[in-house]
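Subject: for your reference before the review

Hello V.,

The reviewers asked for a structural picture of the protein, and I figured it would be easier to keep everything in one thread rather than splitting it across files. Below is the amino acid sequence we used in the manuscript, unchanged from the supplementary table.
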Amino acid sequence: MAIVLGLMSKKGGAGKSTIVKLLSSAVTHAGHKCLVIDLDPNKDILTWWAVSKTNDLAEDNLIVRTVSPDRDLFDLIDEYDDKVKFIIIDTKGEGVDFGVDLASVADALIIPCLNAKADRDRTLETINWHKDLKARAEDPSRIPPLHVVMSRVNPRLLTHVKGTPKPDGVGVRELERHYEIIEQLRPLEIMVPEKPIYQEIEERGALGMIIKEHKDKNDASSKMKLRHFEAAMALAILLGNCIFEERKMSVTNGS
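And here is what came back from the structure prediction:
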């Protein structure tokens, strides 16, 4: 049976699609077959997959599908459950109307959260929805765990330790809210930083294939870019491990 990860958010622009691209790139680069089900009407993942194939930078192990009137989420999972190792579901932002359906098929639910009051508040609402779902369930153990991922984080905060001076380029309220999110939401240990390199992944193709492309080149520019893409792959792998091992952050271990 496939391992199913469902991404959800009550607010658009939180970074769901970026996390989907990172996780799917990591598992396919490791040799696993992966299905991504794109439930977002914007079809961001489907478009990215098409661009990847156009650029000859698509992973052979990656399949992307969307629902249709005659094939819904449950049909797709039934069809691919024994054909792939991972299924990742990208959902529409600005709502969790299908949250119960997602919880019924996923092994873990993932919520990206930006450093912004609205995002923090919407994430808290989703956490409370998840708690209520478990409380109402006949068998709470069948409700998948829910994990918050801090997304589009200011890179200067990735290694900051609470109590040390504020880094240059970080606002006072931004720093305070960063630790408020850690205290209130207990996100996973691995954060996804705000980096221009993710835009290149968006526009070109699968991360593993981009790495291979740059490895085949010998110019200085490609070698420099290669280090950044390899760092992105390392982060994607660590994020996946964090999800499966349920390693969560606390203020006591910094961030």
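For the response letter, the relevant points are probably these. The chain has nine helices and seven strands. The mean pLDDT is 92.

Happy to draft the paragraph if you're swamped.

O.
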